[in-house]
Records
---
Amino acid sequence: MSGLVIDGIASLVTNDPGSGRGPLGVVEDAALVVQDGRVAWAGPRTRLPEGAGGERYDAGGRAVIPGFVDSHAHLVFAGDRAPEFEARMSGRPYTAGGIRTTVAATREASDDALRANVRRLVAEALRSGTTTIECKSGYGLTVADEARSLRVAGEHTSEVTYLGAHVVPPEFAGDSDAYAELVAGAMLDACAPHARWIDVFCDRGAFDGDQTRAILTAGRQRGLVPRVHAGQLGPGPGVRIAVELGAASADHLTHLSDADVEALAGGGTVATLLPGAEFSTRSPYPDARRLIDAGATVALAADCNPGSSYTTSIPFCVALAVRDMRMTPDEAVWSATMGGARALRRSDVGHLAPGARADIVLLDAPSHVHLSYRPGVPLVARVWKDGRPVAAAV
Ligand SMILES: [Zn+2]
């Protein structure tokens, strides 16, 4: 593959403190050299290595950041839940039960319909700068439908998560233990070959601590790495179990005890915040400052799903994180790039240091601060994935 030189960059976020200013490693008046799909060099334009060859792209005095790494998404589903959203915005509280509506529609859908929906949402995410996206199952909830969901997800991303424990399906109503046994047994057997991660919705109305621990432990024995939905709807044991089992990430975290915060700060589990869910369910936001100040690693993700956060837009989540979760603009951008990469245990994405994948976003703005300063404005002008242009607004 030929090389690419991007120059005329007013402000470059590398997320490499060795390359530039602060934790974001910001370089002003910068250039970036891409070779064979990887970042070959990043730094001040005036020090661009001689002989850096290939196609030239003039950023025109705009900002460049790493592609967003969205570590939490539910994209394999059919139908939507606009009526439920409308009702909720008219005063009805969100409960986990709404997921069952999507389960019924997903079971009815053809493989091609599910595939088309994932493709549409991945493309939509890419247009707003997301170059790496995780994708969960969790709307099939039978052995065959969960395995099918994971196969479809795997056609679009390598970050595939088995979430058979999303909600107890109607046919197991009143016997959640029997369903949890299926999730950790025959369903896991069918799903493990198609997934990298295993996730459990550990919350009120979903799965309790004992079920969560049993399912994640079984998944671990099959080589899957745990992640946990914890503390979205109420306090519970999810965070404690996540840290104890070495989960890559604990997600939502709206309801946290002091012990939970301490565990996240001291362990290897990333705290992933999903402000789109609080926005769309009109719920209190998680306390990002408490987590950051305690020393936890915080990721931001969109939680795209048809029930509680039907957005693929990380720029929107960055704006919410700054406005409503009191993260600084720098922290929010770091969490949506490097934080997401940490939550997926990836060292090749989320930054633009030499050797990183050339997943690059050009903003129609002079700096990354505009992502939160200009909420709702489509600032993503151009996206490169592995050094190739994949989405362009201008
Ligand atoms: Zn989720």
Note: Residues 72, 74, 229, 303, 305 surround zinc ion (CB under 6 Å).
---
Amino acid sequence: MTARRQYRLLANVDHGKVRTYRKGCCCASCTAAAVDAARRWQAKARQKPFAEIPHGTAGGYTNYACRCPECTAAMTAAKRPHGRGQV
Ligand SMILES: [Zn+2]
Ligand SMILES: [Zn+2]
């Protein structure tokens, strides 16, 4: 069984805002605002100096587009299903 996320359209809120999206609104304009904000954040994150990137984390790989061995290994580990390690 998978938990289904319920998306609802909120009334009396400012649509087209990330804040509204975070409140749970998933209308087209709020989603677009959230996607836009994430893209801008990511573009900024990718300009970070190598030393400031959290290496060895999946976030370093995805958010910072770091492909160093540590981040790549963390990403591989994160993708692997949990439980018994398979060789
Ligand atoms: Zn909305
Ligand atoms: Zn790295």
Note: Residues 10 and 28 are 12 Å apart (CA to CA).
